[in-house]
Design brief:
CATH architecture of the largest domain: 6 Propeller
Shape: globular
Number of helices: 4
Largest sheet: 5 strands, mixed
Structural class: mainly beta
Distance between the termini: 44 Å
Number of strands: 30
Length: about 450
């Protein structure tokens, strides 16, 4: 409704007070609508001048935008009517450069902070010949903008090492695929290592360099010192593989769904949302949501009732294989979207665990009303570092992806039907101030 736009423009206004004003305007003579509206607008402008800057809102900066399409500097978004968006598109920001992968086009683009395409790694069978970049590999050719080819079968998750080597998920040839009966899944994924010259160095499998293919890869993560973390999922468990910067296996851990930690004294079923690695230490953060149970109609087994109880983040020390602590996440209630003057109804929303920054900082995000999202940053002890509101036009998006840099900058790829915006929020300044205070 039109008043939602006013509430976004003037976030300091009490929502219920504003709706009461609207209610009495509706009851009044229809000829009074225009003068009432003018008076209300004047009052809002006056209040906005008095309120000053909203300290709870974290300002967003738009870096640049790229078109939707098949050219070398565009994103190919493939949508199928009435089906969920499943293709993988990922964003990584490092040292001021923006890297964007496009699964359907089998390519990875590198942009500077102004939106200039400066390098491209692509499969020529799925892309037109680049016209903006140099493709020559002659020794005497000097250029800052290059295109490199590689015969990707897919482009899934990816990340960058400290020396800017690309780690890219790809599929193996069909004859190399192996079905694992114990895991009840197909092993068909590897992690390519491609250097800054676009050359394949080697690939990583389960045992390390040249190893057995992985099952489905959920995420690729990198620590501040370059150690590589591969997170896989099967029907029964999450599998974690932790490697040295050179690709030697250090740890392999299986996290079974039926062995997840449960709060003492509660009859609840845990749901593992996601896992993120610590940037500095060899430990994992597991975000678990707990739901009440009810007795099943068949077999008498407990099943999830859908009634939410609480959320926790458990800290797993991978060297000892034990949970060393947990963080109790705060409950988050947002106003009900239904217009109601009589009851102050609120509905509970869950936080999404979107990643970590160096220094043990954890980022969580939860949608609110009017395109507002609540950003929560905690430290590794569960202490609240900040709670901010960020604005994302969710109703206009067909796809989004977030990335948290080691220094704490939160960036996002926000895709609409005809364009994709790359934006960021300077959370690094918040972390810097927190460290100084500490």
């Amino acid at each position: 409704m039109w008043f939602d736009g006013i509430l976004v423009t003037f976030p300091f206004i009490d929502t219920h007070l504003f709706r009461v004003v609207l209610f009495f305007m509706r009851l009044s003579n229809k000829h009074l609508w225009i003068p009432c509206l003018i008076a209300l607008s004047a009052a809002l402008l006056f209040l906005s001048g008095c309120a000053g800057e909203d300290s709870s809102k974290l300002e967003r900066e738009e870096l640049f935008s790229i078109p939707v399409g098949k050219t070398e500097n565009a994103l190919n978004l493939i949508e199928v009517d009435r089906q969920p968006f499943t293709q993988r598109i990922r964003l990584v920001m490092k040292d001021g450069f923006i890297y964007i992968s496009n699964g359907s086009s089998r390519k990875i683009m590198q942009f500077n902070s102004y939106g200039d395409l400066i390098s491209l790694l692509y499969n020529p069978e799925y892309n037109p010949l680049p016209v903006l970049l140099n493709q020559s590999k002659e020794e005497n050719t000097v250029t800052s903008k290059n295109a490199f080819t590689y015969p990707f079968r897919t482009v899934g998750e990816f990340c960058l090492t400290p020396d800017n080597t690309l780690l890219i998920e790809d599929e193996v040839l069909e004859e190399r695929r192996v079905y694992d009966e114990e895991l009840d899944t197909m092993l068909d994924r590897i992690v390519l290592r491609i250097n800054r010259e676009g050359e394949l160095e080697d690939y990583i499998g389960q045992e390390g360099v040249g190893g057995t293919p992985f099952p489905y890869i959920h995420d690729l993560q990198i620590t501040e010192n370059g150690e590589i973390v591969v997170l896989c999922r099967t029907m029964k468990s999450w599998l974690l593989y932790w490697y040295t910067p050179r690709g030697s296996l250090i740890f392999q851990i299986s996290i079974l769904y039926d062995k997840l930690p449960v709060p003492e004294g509660l009859k609840v079923i845990p749901a593992l949302e996601t896992i993120h690695a610590d940037r500095d230490a060899r430990r994992l953060y597991l975000k678990l949501d707990y739901y009440h149970t009810q007795n099943g109609e068949t077999g008498g087994e407990d099943v999830m009732s859908g009634s939410f109880e609480k959320s926790r983040i458990y800290i797993l020390d991978i060297e000892s294989g034990t949970y060393e602590n947990f963080i109790e996440l705060p409950r988050y209630f947002r106003e009900s979207e239904e217009f109601n003057l009589v009851r102050d109804e609120k509905e509970e929303a869950l936080y999404e665990f979107i990643g970590t920054a160096a220094g043990g900082y954890l980022y969580l995000l939860s949608p609110d009303q009017n395109n507002a999202n609540e950003l929560l940053i905690l430290d590794e002890t569960g202490r609240l570092v900040t709670r901010k509101t960020i604005i994302i036009q969710e109703d206009e998006l067909v796809y989004r992806d977030f990335h948290i840099a080691g220094d704490g900058i939160l960036s996002a790829l926000l895709c609409e039907k005809e364009t994709c915006r790359i934006v960021w929020w300077r959370c690094d300044k918040i972390l810097e101030a927190d460290r100084d205070e500490g």
